[in-house]
Write a structure and sequence with these properties.
The complex is a heterodimer.
Chain A (H helix, E strand, L loop, with lengths): L3 E10 L2 E11 L4 E5 L6 H9 L6 E6 L2 E2 L10 E4 L11 H11 L4 H15 L14 H14 L4 E5 L7 H18 L2 E6 L2 H7 L2 E6 L2 E6 L1 H6 L4 H6 L6 E10 L2 E6 L2 E4 L7 H6 L4 E6 L5 E3 L8 E11 L4 E8 L2 E7 L9 E5 L6 E3 L11
Parallel strand pairs in A: 3-8, 3-9, 6-7, 7-8
Antiparallel strand pairs in A: 1-2, 1-4, 4-5, 9-10, 11-12, 11-14, 12-13, 14-20, 15-19, 16-17, 16-19, 17-18
Chain B lengths: L18 H37 L2 E2 L9 E2 L3 H7 L5 H30 L8 H11 L6 H11 L6 H8 L14 H26 L3 H9 L4 H30 L2 H6 L17 H11 L3 H28 L5
Antiparallel strand pairs in B: 1-2
Helix pairs in contact in B: 1-12, 2-12, 3-7, 3-9, 3-11, 7-9, 8-9, 9-12, 11-12
Chain lengths: ~375, ~325
């Protein structure tokens, strides 16, 4: 049973709560990704699972076993550190073998396990080298190998790809996903990179300010963010947020965006909550990839008048920065190429792609 | 963008008129900056060292070389004669160094471990303990040794008071041939340990925390992590501490002189039990006025120190891990 459970866990550093009362389960065989900006408490959450930080309150469970006060060495977890933390004075072989030797494994078994891990990670020719004679990518694989050889109950990974260059990171990401399928163990993985989170995770835990914002599959997090933070944090660029006022025009609900009116078709899931809300104000979110930019208004879908301020060509797509009003801006991701000029355009979208948030609590109306 | 590679190697840059004097001037500036220090070193270190080597070959008279007479290697032959006491002084020195170096390193490392910073900032307690440990090192040994004479007073001293509180027999300390040298060692451990603490504090702060944590995750307890991970990281500083500690111990003079009655005849008592080679040198030259012989002792002491330091470096580097 390789399930890791944080049960109402908090961690205070002096007067600061790094992690505030989180309850979370990393299920058996799950690839659980803790995602959030710097200082959101994700690494502290991971280190408490490892036993490298003591929780200020709450319990940690490995399977059924309470390990809150168990030393790291007795938890049978392996950790991959951000800077790899290889033993610099040992060869790659000894780095891999160290944990097994401490467990009094027979020399033959150590050799077998090390050679097996080395073969899997393509480290056979590097076994006699010291870490400083390795490239970043090789060190990263040694760090993975050191975690693998012991066949721990679960892997804890603290931003293991953040020191690799972009190409190598993309490659290693794929290897990591394949490795997870092969090993079929629990992995808890910390990252601030949403692409890693989306591609690798069975489930994502979005954290901010020491608090869990949302737990869900990558699709759920992307499609149904529960609040503005999650909506804006996931996606490149993040979700567009527009302050609106609700009004009823000819019996149908419409949103007033800046100086423009946006009629909405009936039957959208959040409408009941929007209508019954005390305030007429709300924040409407729409992802850049759901916006369409055209020279003329589309018929049948709500459109807004805008002006192109800036264009970022990316080759396969274009980021178009648009001004609705002087202080109302949008970013659209479109496959079309737009000239970089101050031209008037129309922005349209499928109203089902709108997300509506309470302007005060910033919580999505769908989630209420 | 591909840079074009010239097919012909470009000619070397030619120094043009105004540049050359600039280069020569900076060369002169370098010498000008080094020269004062070099002159002092030459005048007060290298020249005396050469003179000492020369004097050791003469029956030296303070009036100068003209009134001294050549004896060749006779002083060196006398040194090797057991009656001279030189060989005994070497064994006392070996005992002293052999005890002081491991003890000061163990104590220094232990104290450094206790006062090393554990949080992001130094607490007031850590600052206080660090200062307290380092303070003795900046006091003059010759002065604080007087305090230690009181401490080791057989009748009224603190040392015997502590022993009697522990129900242990009182010791003669500085009056005992067995305990006089250990008493000096205790003084010098107290005096010098601050230096070792500073060395090891710096070394400990360079041990990467995540590597230690990786060892814990791999199944290491505190002792195993210390031995297999922290100790190798400390090894370059350990080697430095051994070499510096040995040189410092071999040179120890003031505290021994003061505690063993130097002002009453050169120190080193009782019965030469604390006569280290440094004390022997002093007594030969400045109590018995055998300058030439004292110079020979100095030369041999220098060669012994050089040999020991080189041997330590050679052996030590086999067990040292440099990052």
């Amino acid at each position: 049973m390789a399930q890791i459970e944080w049960d109402h866990v908090s961690k205070w550093f002096g007067p600061v709560a790094a992690v505030h009362n989180i309850s979370l389960v990393a299920r058996d065989h799950e690839f659980l990704v803790l995602l959030g900006p710097s200082g959101c408490g994700k690494t502290t959450t991971l280190r408490m699972a490892a036993g490298l930080e003591d929780p200020t309150s709450g319990r940690l469970l490995l399977g059924e076993r309470d390990v809150t006060h168990v030393e790291p060495r007795d938890r049978d977890l392996a950790m991959v550190f951000q800077n790899y933390a290889l033993y610099p004075h040992m060869t790659v072989y000894d780095n891999l073998a160290f944990g097994l030797k401490l467990r009094k494994t027979s020399p033959q078994a150590v050799r077998r396990a090390v050679e097996d891990a080395a073969a899997r990670l393509g480290l056979e020719s590097l076994l006699a080298r010291r870490p400083r004679e390795l490239s970043g990518g090789q060190r990263q694989r040694v760090a993975l190998g050191r975690a693998m050889v012991r066949q721990p109950q679960a892997f804890l990974m603290d931003e293991p790809l953040s020191n690799l260059d972009a190409t190598l990171r993309a490659e290693t990401r794929v290897q990591l996903k394949a490795l997870h399928a092969q090993l079929a163990t629990t992995i808890v993985y910390v990252t601030h990179d949403q692409v890693e989170a989306m591609t690798l995770a069975t489930r994502i835990v979005v954290m901010n300010g020491g608090v869990i914002q949302q737990v869900g599959t990558p699709d759920a997090i992307y499609d149904r963010p529960v609040n503005q933070f999650v909506a804006h944090f996931i996606g490149t660029p993040g979700m567009n947020m527009l302050p609106v006022l609700w009004g009823r025009v000819d019996g149908a609900l419409a949103a007033i965006v800046g100086s423009q009116r946006l009629p909405l078709p009936p039957g959208l899931p959040w409408m009941r909550a929007a209508e019954s809300a005390v305030s007429h104000a709300a924040t409407v979110g729409v992802r850049p990839e759901h916006l369409r930019v055209a020279a003329a208004p589309e018929t049948g879908t709500p459109s807004l008048k805008a002006r192109i301020r800036l264009v970022e060509p990316m080759g396969h797509e274009t980021l178009v920065h648009l001004d609705l009003d002087p202080d109302l801006t949008l970013v659209a991701r479109t496959p079309d190429r737009w000239p970089h000029s101050n031209i008037p355009v129309w922005v349209s979208f499928d109203p089902r792609h709108l997300h509506v948030f309470d302007p005060v609590s910033q919580v999505a109306y769908e989630a209420v | 963008m591909v840079e074009t590679v010239p097919s012909q190697p470009s000619p070397p840059p030619v120094a043009i008129g105004p540049r050359a004097p600039v280069r020569r001037r900076s060369f002169n500036l370098g010498w000008a900056l080094v020269l004062p220090a070099l002159a002092f070193l030459a005048l007060f270190t290298y020249l005396p060292a050469v003179l000492v080597a020369a004097i050791s070959l003469f029956q030296w008279n303070l009036a100068g070389f003209s009134s001294s007479h050549w004896v060749g290697l006779q002083h060196y032959a006398q040194l090797l004669n057991p009656i001279s006491g030189f060989l005994q002084s070497l064994t006392v020195t070996a005992y002293y160094v052999g005890m002081m170096v491991p003890l000061s390193i163990a104590l220094g490392l232990g104290l450094a471990w206790l006062v090393k910073n554990r949080g992001p900032r130094l607490t007031a307690w850590e600052t206080f303990t660090r200062s307290a440990v380092f303070l003795p090192y900046i006091t003059p040994a010759i002065a604080t040794s007087i305090i230690w004479i009181f401490i080791f007073n057989p009748q009224f001293g603190l040392a015997n008071a502590v022993l009697s509180a522990l129900h242990l027999p009182a010791l003669g300390w500085l009056t005992s041939t067995t305990w006089a040298l250990p008493a000096v060692m205790i003084n010098n451990l107290w005096h010098n340990v601050g230096f070792m603490v500073i060395l090891f504090l710096a070394a400990l702060s360079n041990v990467p925390q995540d590597v230690v944590e990786a060892a814990w995750m791999d199944g290491a307890n505190g002792a195993v992590a210390f031995w297999h991970i922290i100790r190798p990281h400390l090894s370059p500083v350990m080697l430095l501490a051994v070499i510096l500690g040995t040189i410092q111990a071999m040179q120890t003079f003031g505290s021994i002189y003061q505690m063993t009655g130097g002002q009453f005849g050169g120190g080193g008592g009782p019965l030469n039990s604390t006569t280290t080679t440094a004390i022997y040198l002093y007594k030969s030259a400045f109590v018995y006025f055998h300058y030439g012989y004292g110079a020979a002792v100095g030369v041999v002491l220098f060669l012994v120190m050089l040999g020991v330091a080189l041997a330590q470096k050679k052996i030590g580097e086999r067990h040292t891990f440099y990052r």
